[in-house]
Design goal:
mainly alpha, flat
Length: 246
């Protein structure tokens, strides 16, 4: 009886099948609404991007037409967009007729639609600096008031630099500078630190320095330093080493 009652109570009040079914139906309806709204938003954004792209292309086309207005046909000579072999003029010819030519200042300006890489600084040629001298001041009357003469003001303004002794002198002392120069000269002239004196007993008492490959922390190999062939005393027939006697 308790088992039947617990099952009935759980199905009725805790895990209600119909309430759960109604909840899932509401979630599916909500998901469908959200999905439709997202689809409409994506379509709207796509249309807006296409419209902006078309407007940008039309604007650039009009700018190019104003820039190339000199290619317009005249009464005597047909332009390149108005070939006599065509049945009707090119659409660019009609656009050239509607547009106004750019002024000289606007032609010197760069197109706002072109992204040119050669504007970036490159190392193909050295930078050019203006070496032109400034124009002399215009001769005019001295203004009324306690003002100095123009020539005197310009002389003070463009006078040469006169640095103080502290600025003109080097940071290092002459002694340190001389030592640095002497070190550089010694390092430049010296070929080898250890002087080699042949046919003398100068190097007789010097200790032999093994190579870097032999002087490792795991120990040195005796082959090549103490002997130059392998010695295996266990395989000897006699206890003594045989020598060749001439």
């Amino acid at each position: 009886i308790q088992k039947r009652w617990r099952g009935y109570y759980v199905r009725k009040y805790i895990h209600n099948y119909y309430a759960l079914k109604k909840y899932l139906e509401a979630i599916s309806v909500n998901n469908e609404i959200v999905r439709n709204e997202l689809q409409e938003y994506a379509e709207m954004k796509e249309k807006e991007e296409k419209r902006k792209d078309i407007e940008k292309k039309e604007k650039e086309k009009k700018y190019q037409a104003r820039k190339m207005h000199y290619l317009l046909s005249t009464e005597k000579i047909a332009g390149i967009y108005n070939s006599p072999l065509r049945k009707s003029p090119d659409p660019m010819e009609l656009l050239l007729r509607k547009s106004k030519p750019l002024s000289h200042r606007q032609q010197q300006m760069k197109s706002p639609f072109a992204y040119e890489l050669y504007d970036w600084p490159t190392c193909k040629r050295p930078p050019t600096f203006s070496t032109a001298q400034p124009l002399p001041p215009i001769g005019r009357q001295k203004p009324q008031g306690p003002f100095r003469d123009t020539a005197e003001v310009l002389q003070q303004r463009y006078k040469p630099l006169e640095p103080t002794l502290r600025v003109a002198a080097s940071i290092n002392s002459p002694l340190e500078k001389a030592r640095e120069e002497m070190k550089k000269e010694e390092w430049r002239n010296c070929i080898h630190d250890n002087e080699f004196l042949p046919f003398s007993s100068y190097h007789k008492n010097e200790k032999y320095d093994p190579s870097i490959h032999r002087s490792v922390k795991y120990g040195q190999e005796t082959y090549g330093i103490k002997h130059f062939r392998e010695v295996q005393p266990k395989k000897w027939v006699a206890d003594k080493v045989s020598h060749c006697i001439f």
